[in-house]
Amino acid sequence: MASIKIxxxxxxxxxxxxxxxxxxxxxxxxxIISLGFKCNLLDWDEVNIQFKKTFPNHTQSNLLxxxxxxxxxxxxxxxxxxxxxxxxxxxxxxxxxxEPNKIxxxxxxxEVISDLNKSGKAGNAKAxxxxxxxxxxxxKKNNLMFKEITPTFLEKYxxxxxxxxxxxxxxxxxxxELRSLYNRAIKKNVIDEKYYPxxxxxxxKLKVGNIKKALTREEVRLIENFDETKYPNLAEAKRIFLFSxxxxxxxxxxxxxxxxxxxxxxxxTYIRSKTKGKFNINILQPVKEILDSYRNRxxxxxxxxxxxxxxxxxxxxxxxxxxxxxxxxxxxxKKIAGIVGVDKPLSSYVARHSYATNLKQIGVSTDIxxxxxxHKNVAITTAYLKDFEDDVIDKENxxxxx
Length: 402
Prior knowledge:
Layout: E1 3-8, E2 18-26, E3 29-39, E4 44-45, E5 50-51, H1 58-81, H2 88-96, H3 105-118, H4 122-139, H5 151-163, H6 168-187, H7 217-224, H8 235-246, H9 252-257, E6 263-264, E7 267-271, E8 278-282, H10 285-295, H11 315-340, H12 348-361, H13 366-373, H14 378-398
Antiparallel strand pairs: 1-2, 2-3, 4-5, 6-7, 7-8
Helix pairs in contact: 3-4, 4-6, 5-6, 8-11, 8-12, 12-14, 13-14
Family: Belongs to the 'phage' integrase family.
Domain Tyr recombinase: 210-397
GO molecular function: DNA binding
């Protein structure tokens, strides 16, 4: 719990006077704020925390000290009521009456991106960078303030995105990133929550319609039977897709980061990058064959798949490599779909979606599907399975006219 104390500084000035300070302590850290008074040791009442009568204008000065103490306690109380885990800098800004929202959106955005890169979250930084570029292509002025991001601003930005051929998913993605930035700004006390535009402009309205993404088991077989000897340039895409499908929908980033040390006997053990959940997967025969095809290949890294070319890449280098290779992977999957006759928009995500749906189709309970995929709650899994459940309902409904 935060606390404050008014006292004299230990060290005197060149005049032999001791500054009166306010010390704020929060989360075991302290900060000293000067209150603008200086006095002799003999003029300070340490017990009652005020000036003695010997101090010039002691009555008025003590009233000011009392008001400062009251102001400090109110600021702490306000933070606690709003359940804000405030920083000492945030307290000082409030106490001194510094206008925190003088920082521009661009300045704050760049600061957040820099912090994310420094903390190794290059993927998050890249997503924010892409949205930042889009917003300022729309707004054109670098001095944009958070107060200017109003519901009207967001509506116009949405129109701009759609005019520039952004899909529903693309619009929703950018709006979520912008909302995330605004939430960070509120938490950092850059902008007051009363200006929050997303109370009126609802990102939830941009929810993308449910598009059938899952492959049937027969369509997965078509990819398994794809003759990679005729198309060696597409062999890697086929293997990675099937590896994902038979490894509980393992996502592309985790496949890229998978090391041989995670493969032991008939099990694969790894930590999912997105949720930090631990997975221990049995190696099915198709997975074994894929692993065997890479096991004895010459390699300069510890990674199973030849996607990353060095063990010592930075987080930014890894994200850049992922972006490049994932783009090629998705392009190659579309070529495979065209060759084998799968009339669905094939991508890395489809393997995960297909795994969930096909498990459900063979009678596995949603709870088990959810656990196998590492979902935190069944509602997430249900979203994956909605297409399948709608189909079942449709077929059952048709029985009414039989």
